Amino acid sequence: MNKFSRFKGIMITLSLFSLFYPVIPVGAAVPSELFSSASVIQNVYQNDSDTFSVLKQVYGQQGVISALNEQTKQVIGEMVKNRSQNTKVYQMSDGSYKAVISLESQHFEDENGNWQDIKTDLVDESELTELKTPVSKDAVNEVKQLVKQNNAKKMASAVRNNSFYRALKVPFNTAIPKKFGQGYTISKGSDYIKFIPVGASNVTGSVYEKGLLYKDAWKQTDVKLDIRPNGVKETIILNNSSAPHKFVFEVNGNLDENLNIGSMKLLPAWLIDANGVYRGVQQVVKREGSRTYLEMVPDLDGLAYPVKIDPTVITLQPNAAAGKDAQVYVNYFHNPNFADENRGGADLLAVKGEGTNQGESRTLIQFDLSSIPQNAIVTKATMYLKQFESWYPYNRSYTTMVHRITEPWDEYAVTWNRQPNHDGNYIYQNVSHSSDMWQNWDITEYAKNWVTGAYPNYGMKILGREGVSSNGIPHLLFWSSDHTDATAVPKLVISFDGPPTAPLVTSPNGGEIWDGASTIFWNPSNDADTTQSNMQYQIQFSRDGGASWRDLVALTNKGAVSYSYDFSSEPDTTNALIRIRAYDGKLYGDWDQSNASFTIMHNHAPYAPYNLSPGTGNPAAAQLVGTTTPALNWTFSDPDAGNSQSAYQVLIKDASGNGLVYDSGWINASSSFFTVPAGRLNRGGIYGWQVLVKDNKGAVSPNSALSFMKINNLPTLVISSYTDGQQLAENTLKFTWTYADADGQAQAAYQILGSQDNWASVAYNSGSINGNATNFTTPPLASGTWSFKILVSDGVEWSTAVQRNNLKLPNTFEPNDSSATAFPIQYDQMYSSLISSATDEDYYKYTAVTSGVDRFTMSLTPDLDYDAYIYDSKMKLIAAGIRIKGSNENVLFDVAAGESYYIRIIGVGGSFNTTTPYAFKVSRLSMQYHTDYQYDASGNITNKKTVNDK
User: Fold this and answer.
1) For 325-344, what is each residue's pLDDT tens digit?
2) How many domains would you assign to the chain?
3) Could you give the CA distance from residue 528 to residue 512 in angstroms, rounded to a whole number?
4) Cα separation of 359 and 353, whole Å?
5) In a domain, 605, yes or no
6) What's the CA angle centered on 184, arms 17 and 247, to 5 degrees?
């Protein structure tokens, strides 16, 4: 197979926008509050459902993953506040750091100025109704307006079809159309541009992963729009020779002849055919009156289809220090023009030694190191390039030479003839044959000198050593920063040491009230060269909110994580702060201080608790309580602002208020409620209770006043109708009972329950019925053996259930041979009867409780041949169960609340049986669904399936 047969068409580069991002440097010592002690996965992907490890997301290869996690030290968290546009910094378990620097943007800036992880997912703007996560500052105002509009009124279908998709978590604002003819936009700050295709079909795009595909946008031409971390990539795919030979876009925006739009840039266009032939594509800006057009005219002569014009990219322009990469060629396929062609926008980097046949290629690459502190000690720096393909004999390695570039260069202007000079020394590295894997180079010496400023960072130039030989064409290809897969772009991992990290002050940390001897606590610092047991700390105190500081101790004992100090002599203040920094014997780290002010003041005992509930102050009018384990509540109050309850003690006494019934003892808790344990209180008893509390300084309050309560007696009943095991003559039951209550409370409600399966389920439930009636008549119930429970309520509690068991109800459904004599039935009861003659028909009726779908099921033995028909209240047939002989019926039908429905059961062709019954039941349909999602290796949803669990 040809090495480029994977391509489906020709690619053109349209544009690439870039801004100058401020880089947040890592300080000399990074305070520990800037990173999470949770796993890196939680730190980076804390709002997502991704189950892949962070390192796998970033690198995609185990070899690069191990560059961070080592046998003796592992990542403990990302230094979130030290992110930059292209860099993530991680703290290792030994106190050192590793920075992962990518040539692709890793973060966008939200409206609050925080760096957030880039996600190139598309969102349908017509479905935006709320913002739950941070959004790019470039898109937030427009997105908020869309949310407001969508919530104000539902977007019409026609409008939705012509709306746009949005990328909310990228460092620019863009609108990708659902219909190609609308054109797409990208903006950054005040810079804006829109591309509207001329002569194209207004086809609807289909969403895939990070973009849209528009089939047949022009004749025999497809177009893809992809969202990338640095911009929008447009790929034009010419499928055969019937495709156009020129493509025109009307441009809205300030596009100049150099293809710049303020801070954004349109990259040079190029194409590649099915045989791997590269060519530049001419892009011409034309003005016609007030209108501006961009024309792309590819030279298609002699090319093999399909051809891709790629990457047509609009991107954010990097500043002079930002990372960049490019390849330069000379005499490629004997074409001398390649020496003056810029390949800064290509998605591949090439390294090829000098030869007489296929020419020579070199790769230029520069990483932004501004996030590494100047005083950092670089211990290792490894550059990773992901290999696309290699052209040379498979049984040998290929030698590369990495030189330091000594002068500035422009990614979008550099060519072979205009390449920067490089130092004569180089790093020698053999690269083994492989495909689709990471290759790495140790560039520690270069990184050390760049970080310290020994010489300026202009990047590196990678040269190939071998030329053409009889064994093949040595040629290495790697993915560049312009590749659509952000996980495959070049990366640099730098390990470095610095001063000790800041400790974490844990107490006092804001809001505390201290008086007298108190203990200051902190979490220890980490340092690559000093163990925690040898670390010392300087502790300072401020009583004026940080305006002035003085030492409490110049240096603690080694390994200390707490320090006791007597604040008795300190004047009262509400603006006290503590700050602490670590000392490793050579350097001080950064300070960490209390998150907020704490208070120094003398403490007073809490007031007696009040608002006691339940209860009254009079035992003769004690509050009735419906449980033997009541929850007791009170309110805590303290004269000292900021004090809180730290413990409580509950005392329960008899009706006289003197005899102690129960003592909870001191319970250390801030909660102002207590549940009395079981077995302590008796029904009908009167009790007085009180509580005393401690504040967070240990001071004890006076006892509260006594609060009296009476434990309710449960009501009782005696059933006066029927006897256990009685055979009844009818299916309608009339229950009677007598009610009694020791507290003299009248019956407030009652409830009757029935079961046909020994209470495995409830087949009949009257529900709670308010009133003092002592009799109740059930509706007609299904035949068979039933057990019943009756409960009564005194308005406070329900009684214990009293039962009538094994009542036998007959089959008294007959006569029910017509709708007029239909037997009334209930939901979820199994009814059983006979078709006793060739002319016998059985009718049943019921009333739908709620609108929806009901289910009729009928069980038949193999010898029964019966059908069932469902009618509405006007006897209009709405459903039927007419399966073959001996088959059970399962019929679904729509019902409306309050409407009556009839069920007619007949023997087919006069079929009947005087001894074998049929059985049926009507129930409400309950459907439960769940959705299973499938993801690819990057965490993107690739498929979903929703199934009914019932």
Assistant:
1) 999 988 765 567 778 888 88
2) 7
3) 34
4) 8
5) no
6) 90
